[in-house]
Design a protein that fits this description.
The protein is an alpha+beta fold. The protein is 47% helix and 21% strand. It starts with a helix and ends with a helix.
Length: 100
Protein backbone atom coordinates (compact mmCIF):
# COMPACT_ATOMS: atom_id res chain seq x y z
CA UNK A 1 0.00 0.00 0.00
CA UNK A 2 1.37 3.40 -0.95
CA UNK A 3 1.60 6.34 1.42
CA UNK A 4 -1.26 8.01 -0.46
CA UNK A 5 -3.45 4.90 -0.12
CA UNK A 6 -2.66 4.65 3.58
CA UNK A 7 -3.61 8.31 4.10
CA UNK A 8 -6.87 7.87 2.21
CA UNK A 9 -7.69 4.69 4.16
CA UNK A 10 -7.08 6.53 7.42
CA UNK A 11 -9.35 9.39 6.34
CA UNK A 12 -12.12 6.97 5.29
CA UNK A 13 -11.98 5.26 8.68
CA UNK A 14 -11.79 8.59 10.53
CA UNK A 15 -14.96 9.78 8.77
CA UNK A 16 -16.77 6.54 9.62
CA UNK A 17 -17.47 5.59 6.01
CA UNK A 18 -18.48 1.99 6.55
CA UNK A 19 -20.39 0.99 3.41
CA UNK A 20 -19.10 -1.98 1.42
CA UNK A 21 -16.10 -0.92 -0.67
CA UNK A 22 -12.86 -2.13 -2.18
CA UNK A 23 -9.81 -1.71 0.04
CA UNK A 24 -6.13 -1.81 -0.92
CA UNK A 25 -5.94 -5.16 0.91
CA UNK A 26 -8.80 -6.52 -1.22
CA UNK A 27 -6.98 -5.41 -4.32
CA UNK A 28 -3.68 -6.98 -3.29
CA UNK A 29 -5.45 -10.21 -2.34
CA UNK A 30 -6.60 -10.58 -5.96
CA UNK A 31 -3.02 -10.66 -7.30
CA UNK A 32 -1.83 -14.22 -7.79
CA UNK A 33 1.45 -13.61 -9.64
CA UNK A 34 3.58 -10.93 -11.25
CA UNK A 35 5.96 -11.20 -14.17
CA UNK A 36 8.31 -8.60 -15.65
CA UNK A 37 9.96 -8.15 -19.01
CA UNK A 38 12.48 -5.59 -20.22
CA UNK A 39 12.62 -5.50 -23.98
CA UNK A 40 16.16 -6.01 -25.28
CA UNK A 41 17.89 -2.79 -26.27
CA UNK A 42 15.24 -0.65 -24.59
CA UNK A 43 14.38 0.98 -21.28
CA UNK A 44 10.82 -0.37 -21.44
CA UNK A 45 9.71 -2.52 -18.51
CA UNK A 46 6.36 -4.31 -18.65
CA UNK A 47 4.67 -5.88 -15.64
CA UNK A 48 1.96 -8.49 -16.09
CA UNK A 49 -0.16 -9.18 -13.01
CA UNK A 50 -2.16 -12.39 -13.04
CA UNK A 51 -5.26 -12.26 -10.88
CA UNK A 52 -6.80 -15.17 -8.98
CA UNK A 53 -9.34 -15.81 -11.75
CA UNK A 54 -6.62 -15.91 -14.43
CA UNK A 55 -7.33 -12.44 -15.84
CA UNK A 56 -4.21 -10.36 -16.52
CA UNK A 57 -3.46 -6.65 -16.40
CA UNK A 58 -0.31 -4.92 -17.56
CA UNK A 59 1.60 -1.79 -16.71
CA UNK A 60 4.72 -0.30 -18.17
CA UNK A 61 7.49 2.13 -17.45
CA UNK A 62 10.18 3.66 -19.60
CA UNK A 63 12.77 6.36 -19.14
CA UNK A 64 13.71 8.98 -21.71
CA UNK A 65 17.44 8.81 -20.93
CA UNK A 66 18.96 5.32 -20.99
CA UNK A 67 21.50 6.53 -18.41
CA UNK A 68 18.64 6.77 -15.91
CA UNK A 69 17.40 3.21 -16.44
CA UNK A 70 17.18 1.19 -13.25
CA UNK A 71 15.55 -2.25 -13.42
CA UNK A 72 14.24 -2.18 -9.84
CA UNK A 73 12.64 1.25 -10.21
CA UNK A 74 11.22 0.25 -13.59
CA UNK A 75 9.57 -2.83 -12.04
CA UNK A 76 8.06 -0.77 -9.21
CA UNK A 77 6.58 1.81 -11.58
CA UNK A 78 5.28 -0.81 -14.02
CA UNK A 79 3.72 -2.87 -11.21
CA UNK A 80 2.03 0.17 -9.72
CA UNK A 81 0.55 1.08 -13.10
CA UNK A 82 -0.73 -2.48 -13.58
CA UNK A 83 -2.12 -2.56 -10.03
CA UNK A 84 -4.03 0.69 -10.62
CA UNK A 85 -5.97 -1.05 -13.41
CA UNK A 86 -7.44 -3.53 -10.92
CA UNK A 87 -9.43 -0.88 -8.99
CA UNK A 88 -12.10 -0.35 -11.67
CA UNK A 89 -12.41 -4.09 -12.27
CA UNK A 90 -13.13 -4.79 -8.61
CA UNK A 91 -15.39 -1.75 -8.41
CA UNK A 92 -17.45 -3.10 -11.31
CA UNK A 93 -17.69 -6.49 -9.61
CA UNK A 94 -18.76 -4.93 -6.31
CA UNK A 95 -21.38 -2.74 -8.02
CA UNK A 96 -22.88 -5.86 -9.63
CA UNK A 97 -23.05 -7.47 -6.18
CA UNK A 98 -24.65 -4.39 -4.62
CA UNK A 99 -27.37 -4.20 -7.28
CA UNK A 100 -28.19 -7.93 -7.33
Amino acid sequence: MSKDEAAIEAEIKEKGLTAKRITPEDLDAEIEDDDYHVFPGSCLTVCCLTLKNGFTVTGESACASPENFNAEIGRKIARNKAREKIWPLLGFRLRDQLTA
